[in-house]
Amino acid sequence: MKKKYLNLLLIPILLVSASVYGQKKNKPNPLKEDAIQSIENRYSDLTNLSDQIWSFEEIAFQETQSAAALSDYAESLGFKVTRGVAEIPTAFVAEYGSGSPVIGILGEFDALPGLSQNKVPYKSPLHEDAPGHGCGHNLFGVASLGAASAIKDLIEEGKIKGTVRFYGTPAEEKFFGKLWMVRAGLFEDVDVVMDWHPAAETKAAVQKGLALVDFQVEFKGQAAHAAADPWNGRSASDALELYTSGINYYREHIKPTVRIHYHIQDAGQVVNVVPDYSRIWVRVRDSSREGLMPVYERVQEMAEGAAILANVDYEVNLISGIHEVLVNRTGSAALQKNLETLGPISYTEEEQEFAKKIQEATGKPENGLVSKIEPMEETAVHSMGGSTDVGDVSYVVPTIRLSATTAPNGTPWHSWAVVAAGGMSIGHKGMAYAAKALSMTMVDLFENPELVEAVKADFKENLGDYVYKGMVPPGPPPIKSNLQ
Amino acid sequence: MKKKYLNLLLIPILLVSASVYGQKKNKPNPLKEDAIQSIENRYSDLTNLSDQIWSFEEIAFQETQSAAALSDYAESLGFKVTRGVAEIPTAFVAEYGSGSPVIGILGEFDALPGLSQNKVPYKSPLHEDAPGHGCGHNLFGVASLGAASAIKDLIEEGKIKGTVRFYGTPAEEKFFGKLWMVRAGLFEDVDVVMDWHPAAETKAAVQKGLALVDFQVEFKGQAAHAAADPWNGRSASDALELYTSGINYYREHIKPTVRIHYHIQDAGQVVNVVPDYSRIWVRVRDSSREGLMPVYERVQEMAEGAAILANVDYEVNLISGIHEVLVNRTGSAALQKNLETLGPISYTEEEQEFAKKIQEATGKPENGLVSKIEPMEETAVHSMGGSTDVGDVSYVVPTIRLSATTAPNGTPWHSWAVVAAGGMSIGHKGMAYAAKALSMTMVDLFENPELVEAVKADFKENLGDYVYKGMVPPGPPPIKSNLQ
Amino acid sequence: MKKKYLNLLLIPILLVSASVYGQKKNKPNPLKEDAIQSIENRYSDLTNLSDQIWSFEEIAFQETQSAAALSDYAESLGFKVTRGVAEIPTAFVAEYGSGSPVIGILGEFDALPGLSQNKVPYKSPLHEDAPGHGCGHNLFGVASLGAASAIKDLIEEGKIKGTVRFYGTPAEEKFFGKLWMVRAGLFEDVDVVMDWHPAAETKAAVQKGLALVDFQVEFKGQAAHAAADPWNGRSASDALELYTSGINYYREHIKPTVRIHYHIQDAGQVVNVVPDYSRIWVRVRDSSREGLMPVYERVQEMAEGAAILANVDYEVNLISGIHEVLVNRTGSAALQKNLETLGPISYTEEEQEFAKKIQEATGKPENGLVSKIEPMEETAVHSMGGSTDVGDVSYVVPTIRLSATTAPNGTPWHSWAVVAAGGMSIGHKGMAYAAKALSMTMVDLFENPELVEAVKADFKENLGDYVYKGMVPPGPPPIKSNLQ
Amino acid sequence: MKKKYLNLLLIPILLVSASVYGQKKNKPNPLKEDAIQSIENRYSDLTNLSDQIWSFEEIAFQETQSAAALSDYAESLGFKVTRGVAEIPTAFVAEYGSGSPVIGILGEFDALPGLSQNKVPYKSPLHEDAPGHGCGHNLFGVASLGAASAIKDLIEEGKIKGTVRFYGTPAEEKFFGKLWMVRAGLFEDVDVVMDWHPAAETKAAVQKGLALVDFQVEFKGQAAHAAADPWNGRSASDALELYTSGINYYREHIKPTVRIHYHIQDAGQVVNVVPDYSRIWVRVRDSSREGLMPVYERVQEMAEGAAILANVDYEVNLISGIHEVLVNRTGSAALQKNLETLGPISYTEEEQEFAKKIQEATGKPENGLVSKIEPMEETAVHSMGGSTDVGDVSYVVPTIRLSATTAPNGTPWHSWAVVAAGGMSIGHKGMAYAAKALSMTMVDLFENPELVEAVKADFKENLGDYVYKGMVPPGPPPIKSNLQ
């Protein structure tokens, strides 16, 4: 499997890279100044686009309007757009330029169920029970496209050579659309990929997050009248309940970095019948796919045990699984320089007040928005927290990642609070900042082939002899599974 | 609590009653002949009405069209109809005549979810996922109204005196509508009530069935990210799962007549969040309410145990509960005589063929339809099987019950097969037969005050000093709970 | 499998048999008077022997002194004694006479753990934590040997012809010694077997009791330090706990006549180690072996399910299993006559006082000792309660069974109260009464070949085409398993 | 609660302390040379004493012979010995000298159940099922007493002034005897305490280990015949099983540093009775007592939940609980210097061969014995692994701790392998080495009041405002609980 990250070896490279590719603080090179200007010129377009997607409230694989809005805008700017890639109606690629290097940038745009929210600093659903952008993806896709557009301008103006390619990547919150885009070979000819994520702080993103796998277990028994002849029934609910018991007993025997969680989706239909069908969605996570796999195997096997205990049949079906991120510290160091050049986002008093009210409403310390640029973090061996399907992209192409502030410090993620902040100027500012920082780093990559090579070398070093294989079942992506 | 049924004491009474009130076989008295003729005259109306209700496919508390069709028909015949009684929009009373005796008759008309079926002897849904009359209630209400109409004719013609009252009783399959009709005092001035039920055999119904209680348990915990900080979560799903574990352990310590079943209705919303809400529907049954109550108490208490184990809050809410039937063998003996007079239903070869195809399709012995009249059964101390909200009526007024063949021998009840047979001539014949047998027995009651007194004495004897109290929560019936 | 008991067919036979073989009340025939006299002559020997065995307090397969005392006494009377039969050191056969018929009689003599008690009517252990005769087996073996001795006298005196054979049958309370005695063919040449059991009433014993099977499940995992690396452990305790969970969930799906109980014998050794070994003793019962077998199969299979859930190995080992009793109502009717002839046991006021004090101490109605002879009971289709390894004898040879009063009405069996009463005159009287009734019925069998034939015919009728197969593992009986 | 360890602040102190108190490598000061000589002079005594204790195989609170052997030897050397301190018959204090400073040293000597082993490099019990020194405590007490004796010689010879005090501390493996010794105030006048522990490597011991608490939960229900009337039983085994289910579900909601383990000690007595009694030993651990307490509270509360679920009574009883170690890096740095002066233990080829055979037999890499002196480790915020009741001593007096090699690299601790190595020259060498290193560091403490002050300052800094309270129930220690 892949080699462990060799921190000591890389530090000298980083030091060198800083001196070779870096720019002095507060003195961006002219191309970067051009890129920043491009983004400022399109600020109104970008915020309108972001607000539209915010109001579309479309969940994974159902992002029809959002994908169309981004595609149309890219097309209007001159990008060549290919829609419906990788058998996913809402996935698309927008490309400009030709030849090497090919620099990609990722843009997500799906919302989360049940988080619809007005642009106010207290919980207030815009549409009852409707989805909302609780992960800031209305900003994500737009900022990336904004950065790509700035690069397009430079290519168009002949200032740099090569290809810039924007990936419209749906379904990050559920199913993990990038898996099928990787499977379709869409990243095969790319040199480096960039992305960012809305966050409560601004920094080069150098943590791995968690690998995970999602699968469903179905149990199939025999129905019977629960009062008249329960002895003729074989209960699929019994099997499911014994399965979760087994999983909970197993928790003693997993490493502290492993997480197993499940969602009982169906454990019977009516009270007076022994249920003949049940279904559970299980998720296993670990800080690496290497650690994940034996646990995944075990939890699958346990389904058989539960089925035997309850005398029912069972079926296990993989939904999808993602890798942790293969962090590229060389690329991150280049990004870090640009953050230091840009400096922190500045906020108005009104924005800070709005932020503090959100913090008050969510029980967090009322210290407002934070966007100070700290030195680049160490990459932890086991970084806990969330997961992203950018992980799989990072295993096939070197990936440089940014976090930019779009919500108050300490905001609970995947909550109404992120929706609220992402729908107004706080979110807009983060979006524009991200677009600038990403475009500046892309300028570095276009201008410095040595940087591209160093980023690639870092990728190879980290990957070692690990042979990537995406974790998706055969056949098309589960586009319709998310329809209600 | 109520006295046990005194079989030995009653047998002499039955022997006497047979000689006093009975008629000789095959020689119905003239009023009974009139009643039979009335029903034959309305055969076309009644089968049309039954087929309409069959096609309405309306579930508990949603039987708007079915209740209207029956009410309208009763009104058209001259009954005085009161709609929307007992705070239930689909409950109604249709009355004719005045003064004593007041003889009631019950009519149900609700369908069951998911059983929609064509009139063919193999599984074939008429409307996908729609309800269907898998318990034959399309026939039930109509036959009872047919019997009431025959009595109305006799009153109208001055041949008998008193009041006949038809009760349109919704929601027998879920929630148990009669509970609120009893609570509303609608049975207070009635002398005797009759009812029947579609079945696979024809007989006086002298088994008690099971008392039951339905209640919901909700657990309320604290949500948390299942990977990032599950230690900040308190899982409502854990509580629910530990609650069902507790229930299953408890099964060792309940009497063989007790049944406990449950339906997990909600155990979490998404896979990556520690669930803060869960809900389970629990049903406890026993052969008597007396046996039921301590088990019901225990299973309620257990919710607290599970809540403590999982560190969550909980709430237990009564839905409703019904008594077993207080069997009236004196009245049943009078009914039995009339069955013997009427003799079995006769079937065509086509009907027997249809029946055998249903039996083939449901894996039962292919012996067709059975309607032979057997001697009246013993009443078992513990009769297992199903439950009915007629139980509660039988605890406030003496109730005489009939089963009449409307489906092939051995048909799995609450299945498509009952829907199919109940929608064609097999069902129609059973319906007409039931109407006749019920009206004949009502003639006995109207003609013989001594029979009414003996039936009442039997009721009092059985009831003993038990003080009936219906098991429903305060407030209106849960009319909207069954809306999807 | 075996045919159901045909009650209606047998009743005429019984009526005939009563008139053919019976004697008039209070007029025993002279041989029976001789037998009664024999027993009275040996009353002092028998009570001494019973008190000795009472004081030996020896549990299953460890009854060395008790078996020796009975064997020695039989030998001293002239019986030919074979000790250590069927590979069981404490099993023996004492025979007298030769030729047909061969009439056997069973005698048990094992005590129960933890019931040591003084001869006082309140709980008072004789030896702390020592066994005691809580099932009255100190009386059982002695009474049977007393009856056999009376028959021996008659053979010796030439008054009857044939063979009487006493079976010293150990380990009835655990392991079920008779299984191996049956396997060894010790009952192959016997015509009829008799036995009795101490009880709280006196009657022909015509209920079947329960078939049962005992087996052990062992789980074998991998030990690990429970704090340092529990993820390297595979817990045998987890497997056992999930196994019992599975069993408890399964309770919903067994018939009301089935019982499953278990004893967790070992679920880990110390608190800080993931346990690598666990063991559970499981017992399944049903009212018939026919009903028992599929449940037994199921509960065995479940061990595999639990093992898979916990990722451990497992082993299932049969301990032993017994049949319900094949009741012989023809033989029982002959016994009933003799009970009616003998009439009830009479008690002194002191004995009734002692009995009432026991009843007071155990919270029972204080109505003293009951030995009235009631008419013979119906044999229930499903008779619940306890089990006996006489069941297996009854499946290979017709068996006639007696209950005789040796303890107060309502005494909790397997308690100190049975020990107390069985150690003093109440027990002695029951023992002598049993010896008399048994010897009288044996006289009937020796005198009336037609009775023997009728008893055999009843046996054949009941057995039908069922082919008996004892449920014991291959190899010798588990003599050493009960050593501490 | 106590302040977190302030690593950054302490590093300068350590650097200073090294230059002030340290000696150059390979040049021990004369007093240390004297101490080393003392130990070498007594080498034969010490190894004999260690081998005796090894062969006594005495478990917690039963170490009568071992305590006597150590006490007698101390007395023979001139120590003033007080036996049976802190209400523990096998606890004692051996003191020499007078006045300040008072330097204590701890000595353990209890064995572990079931680990009896011959002095051979493969599993081979010396006495079947007997205890064995699987934690090397036969060496522990002797080495500490050896070190104390060397100091005694120096005091006796007038070379240093003050008091040396050896604490004979029983029951470290179970119950944690030091808790009661702390409670009895035996450490109140001590300046610094030292101890060591047998290990597979040689180093200053600067990890905290885990705090833990042990408690028992008993459930008390109602017995009933498991076949005849299980509905009259309330099962203490059900309660216990539901309790462990609850614990296992709770594992999802504890922090990764927490461990919960349990030992089912009694879950029923016989298979055919609903068990009325059950008992479980539960242990909760965390990297700090602060983290431990809320989990301990929760797991106690859960007993009530399980009791309610199973309708039984329950009782929770604290056994004892220990703190993690309050590490004293200032003292450790002084010890580290002495280890560097002494250098590694050297082994013969035979010893290395013996070690490799043990490694082969236990499936470890066959790399023999390791005693190289590495630089002092960082103290981890959360150090996982085992626990020690030295933790509580370290919370009332500054404690300096050593690990010394007495077993092959990678040896599974608490195994036969530790017993084997600890009974022969490998163990003896480690014991002598420990005695020397400890005595050298004690010389530092006696010679340098500034060091004592710095050690005390470190202690105070770490303790902060935390107020120590030992976790033991009122009343005497559970001396008899460990008798079989």
TrEMBL record, chains A, B, C, D:
One of the record's GO molecular function terms: para-aminobenzoyl-glutamate hydrolase activity
Keywords: Hydrolase, Signal
Signal peptide: 1-22
Keyword Signal found: yes
Cellular component terms per the entry's GO annotation: cytoplasm
Biological process according to GO: folic acid catabolic process
Segments forming domain Peptidase M20 dimerisation: 213-303
Family annotation (Gene3D superfamilies): 3.30.70.360, Zn peptidases
Pfam families in alphabetical order: M20_dimer (PF07687), Peptidase_M20 (PF01546)
Tree of life domain: Bacteria
NCBIfam families xrefs: amidohydrolases
PANTHER family recorded: PEPTIDASE M20, XAA-ARG DIPEPTIDASE
Protein name as catalogued: Aminobenzoyl-glutamate utilization protein B
Organism annotation: Algoriphagus machipongonensis
